[in-house]
Amino acid sequence: MRRPGTLPSIYWTKRWQSSVPHDGPPITETNRTEATMKRFWKTAAKSLVATLIAAEWENQETFLKHHALPMTALTSRAIDAMVDETTRAEVRQALLEYLDTDTICFYQDYPPQLVDLQAQHWDPLLAWARSTFGVELHTFDSVLFNSQPEETKSKLDQILSTFDHWEMAAMERATYTTKSFIIALALVRKHLSVEQAALAAQVEVASQIQRWGEVEDTHDVDFHDVRRQLGSAACLLCSV
Question: What biological process terms from GO does the record include (predicted)?
Fold first, then answer.
């Protein structure tokens, strides 16, 4: 039972109409104030998406916690922005820039724990990307003056151009979360699970924890936040 004074439950209803959009039935919200919901999206691809979003809102109490609404934000991004081809083109360009600073392309030779984790999580991922998409991917030992081949960027841009608005929204979130175009692409293509993608993205942090131990309220928060963000992307892709 909710405490007195907390926000009311949210009840989601489907309006099955003759003019249902081709990519899903409209979803409407009730028992939320207009100010809270006025900019909220009006459609979802499948009932599973609506169920996940309803669960997020059901767990909101006195104050809205935006970090606890990953599915809401991601679905809104897909519906409100990624349906526009110009926006998708701009996002593609922004994501391709991550190739030059991709997390998994920067190797270090010390300490041994880090070297082992790089080989475990990054080597197979780079091999997959090279063989699957027929691209050349360079690895570096410095962040200065590095770039991937233009042909590689062109080929991967062609891959992104085939993504629909759901896939682009998921790709954008996964790239920004992991700081890696390749990890994000592997997640969207379902080559990696959420946990595998998170482990690949946090190799350096895992190495630090192995050497020095976990910093409370820092490492543990990051651990869960990365999985929450990547999990929302994976859930969206599994639901559309």
Answer: mitochondrial proton-transporting ATP synthase complex assembly
